[in-house]
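User: Assemble these into one structure.

Assistant: Restating your components, then the assembled model:
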Amino acid sequence: MKIFWILVQYEWRHFRAAKGLVVLTGLVLLVGLYGIYYGTTELARQRQHLAELPALARHNVEELKTKFPEPADAGEIGYYHTTFAVHHPLPWAGLSLGQRDVNPYYVKLRLLGLQGQLYAAENVNPTKMLSGNFDLAFVLVYLFPLLIIALCFNLLSSEREQGILPLLLAQPVSAGVVVGAKLTFRVGLVLGLAWLLSAVAMGWARVPLDGRVGLWLALVTVYCLFWFGVAFIVTAWQRPSAFNAVALVGVWLLLLVLVPGLLNVYVAAKRPVPQGIELTVKQREQIHGGWDKPKAETMNRFFALYPQWRDTATIKERFVWRWYYAFQHLGDQSVQPLAAAYSTGLRQRYELVETLNWLSPAINVQTSLNALAGSDLPTHLAFQQSVVRYHDALRAYYYPFLFNKTPFAHADYAREPTHTFTSTSETPTAVQGLWKLLLSTGVVGTVGLLLFRARPIQPR
Amino acid sequence: MIQSIAQKEFISTLRDRRFVVLSGLLLALLLAATLVGRGSYRTLQHERMVAQQTVNEQFHNQPNRHPHRVAHYGSFAFRPRAGLSFLDAGLDSFTGASVFLEAHQQNSVNFSQAQQSGSLIRFGELTVAFVLQVLVPLLIVFLCFSAFTEERETGTLKLLLSQGVSMRRVAWGKIAGYGRAVALVVGPALALAAWLLFGEEEFAHNPDVWVRLALFVAGYAVYFFLWIVGAVVVSARQRHARSALVLLLGCWMLGCIILPKATANLGATLFPTITKAQMDADVHEAAQKGINGHDPQDQRSAALKANLLKQYGVDSEEKLPVSVGGLVMAESEAYTSKVYQQHFADLTRTYERQNAISNWAGLLNPYQAIRPLSMGLAGSDFAHYVHFQQAAESYRYQLVQRLNGLQASMGYGDKERKLDAATWQAIPTFAYQAPPVGWALGYLLLPALALLLWAVGLSWLGLKLIDNTPVV
C-alpha cells in the first residue's frame, strides 16, 4: 500500500513537470469557469426579461384606461388587452440551459383563440442556437472526456515507448498497482476539477442545497468514471500511444457525435410529429368560418360547452363581442385533437430518446442534467399546459362581463387572473439516468478488468 | 519527383488497413448523410408545398366577404428549402417554417424543427456538411500526422533527401498524395449528390444550383487542402509522431468544437437581443404616437379625413365617393409597417453584429470560414433566412394594402356590404423566389477570403518552415 501512495506521489510530480498537461488542465478549468459565467448570466438575462414583462402589461392597461375612461364593453378590453404567461427557470438551469433558448419562456396572450398564440417564437439568433450553449453541462459532457483522454491515452504506452516500463516492472511491484496508482491520481485530479467547478457553479447560481446537489455530483462523477473505464480498456489492450489516441478519440466521436446524429435521424423517422402548422391553418379556417355561419348555430355549439350562459339574450345585432369570443373558442375546440396529437407526438419523441439513451452515456448524462435543471422539452410542455389553463381562467373571468353585459371598470383590471409557472426538476428521469449510467460504467469497468487480467503487461 | 512521391503516398495509404477502415466508414456516413438529407429535404419540401397550396386555395375560395375580414383571415407564407440545403441544413432546423400574414401586425416565423425535438438535436445533426467540416479533417489528421515523423523515425527521410530532392518537394509530393486519398473518400458522395440533383426536374436545368454546387465543392477542396498542408507541416516540425498527433487533435478540438460555440456565445453576450415582447411594445408605441412621438395616430387620421373632405369639396363623410375607413386603414398600415421595418432592421443588425464575431473568427479558425461559406452556398444561412422574412413581409404589406384599397373604393358605409367571392381569385398568392448565387456571394466575401488566406498563408509560411527543419 505504501508503494501505491509513493507511485501516486510520483505521478503528481510527473504531472507538474509536464507543462503541456498542466496548461491543458488549467485551460479546462478556465473554460469551465467561462461556462459557469455564460450559463448563469444567460439565465440572469432571461430572468430580467421576465421581470420586465409586468411593466409592459401595466403600460398596456394604462393605455386602455386612457382609451376607455369610462367602464367599457369587456369585449373591447379583451381584444386590446395583452397579458403574459411566464415560465420562470430553476436556478439549476444556469448550469444546464437545455432547450430554454429554443423554446420561448413567455407567451403573450389576448382573449382571442389560444392556438394561434401558443406557438409564437421568441427573438433568438438562429446562428447562436445552431452553435449551442457554452454552459457547464457542455464542459462536463463534451470536454471532460477529452481531458480524460489527454491524460490517459499514454498511461502505460509512454513508459513502454521510453523504455522505462521494464525498469519499473523489475522492481517488486505488480503491474496492477502501477496502473492503479496512475489511474487513481488521474481520477483524483479530474474529479477534483469536476467537483470544484460544480461547487462554484452551484454557489454562483445559488441552488437550494437538497438532494439534487448529490444527484448532480453523482451523475458527473459516474460519467467521468465511465470515461476512465474506457481509457482503462484501451490501456489494457496495450497498443502504441498513437493507436490509443486514435481509438479513444474514435470512441468519443462515436458517443458524442455519431450516435446522437444517427439517433436524431431514427427518432424523426420513427416518430413523425403531426406538423404544428396544420393545426394553426385549421384553427384559422374554423375561426373565420365563424363569421359566415348563422349566429344561432355558433351560439348553440358554444352553449353545449357552457350551458350556464344558455339563458342569456339572443343575439340580434350585426356584431356583438360574446358571439365573437364564442367562435374564437370554438376554433380552439375544433383543433383540440390536433393540438393534443402535437404535444403527445413531441412527448413520445422525447420518451423514445429516453429509452434509447443507454446507447450513449453522453446523451444519457446530458438529458439527465437537463431533466434535473428542468430545462428540457417535458418542462416546456408542462408550461404550455399551464398556459392553456391560464387562458381558460382568463375566459372564465371575462365571460360573466360579456354574457351579463356588465361594463368592465378600471378596478376590474386588477382582479384579472395572472399567470406564473416555475420549472420543476424531473428528478425521476435524472435518477433513472443515473442507474443507466452506473450500469454502463459497470460494464466498461468489468470489461477493462477482464482484459487487464487476460493480457499480462508486456514490458516492451 | 513530386509525382512519384505523391503516387507512393497514395498507394501506401490505400494499403494501410486503418485508412481503409476509417475512410470506408466515412464514405458510408457521407453516402448515408446524402440520402438521409435528401429524404428529409423532400419530405419537408413536399409538406410545405402542399401546405402553401392549401392556404392559397383557401384564400382564393373565400365566400363573399368584407375586404378587411379577408385581411384578418390573411394567409401563410411557407419557406421552401433551398436546392442544396440537403447537403448543408445550416440554420434550417433552428429557423421557423411558416409565418402567418395578417393585417396590422407582423408575426414571427414559427414551428422550427428544433422546437419539435428534445435537447438531442443540440448534439448536432448528421449532415453532409457536418461530415465534411468536422469528420474529414479528423481523417486527415489521422492520415497525415506521421507523414514526416515516420520517415524520420525509420530513417528513410535521409535516404530520400540524398536523392537530391528538397524537403519542400517531398512535402508537396506528400500533400498531393494525401489529397488524392481524401478525394477518393469525398468524391463519390459529392458525385451522388450531383446525380441526385440532376435527377430532379426542378434543378436539372437551373444553372444557379450548379454554380452553387461547383463553388461548394471548390470551397471544401480549399478547406481540405489547408488541413492537409497544416497536418504535413506539423508532422515535419514535430520530433515524434505522438506529439504531432496530440497537437493536431488539440487544434481540431479547439477549432471545430470549442471556438465556434465560444464565439457565438460571446457575440450574444456583447450585443444583447431585444425580446419579442419589448419589440412589439416599441412598434406599437411608435405607431400610436408617431415615430418621433409628436405625430399621434388620432391626429394623423383626423388630418387625413379633413384633407379628403377638402379634396372632394364636400362637407360630410357620407358624400365621399371613397370609404374613409379604408383609407385610414391604409395610412395606418403604411405607417406601422414603416415602424416595424425599422425595428426589424435593428434586430437584424444586432444578429449580424453577433454573427460578425463568429465570422471574423474565421481568420483564426478555418472551420469558422467554411461553415458560413457552405451554409451560404447551400442557401440555409442567416442572410437567406432574412431574405425570406422580408419577402413574406413585403407580400403581406402588398396584400393588406390591396385589400385596404378595395375597401376604400367601396365608398361610405362599406362595413354593411361585402365584396364578391370572385374578387379574391384575382389576388396573387405568395410565391417565394430564392435569391441567386450572385446575391449570396455578396455576404460570403469574408469567409471566402479567410479560407484563401489560410490556404495561401499555410502553403507559403508552412513550407518555408519545412525548409528550415533539420532533417534528423
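Chain A is about 70% helix and 5% strand.
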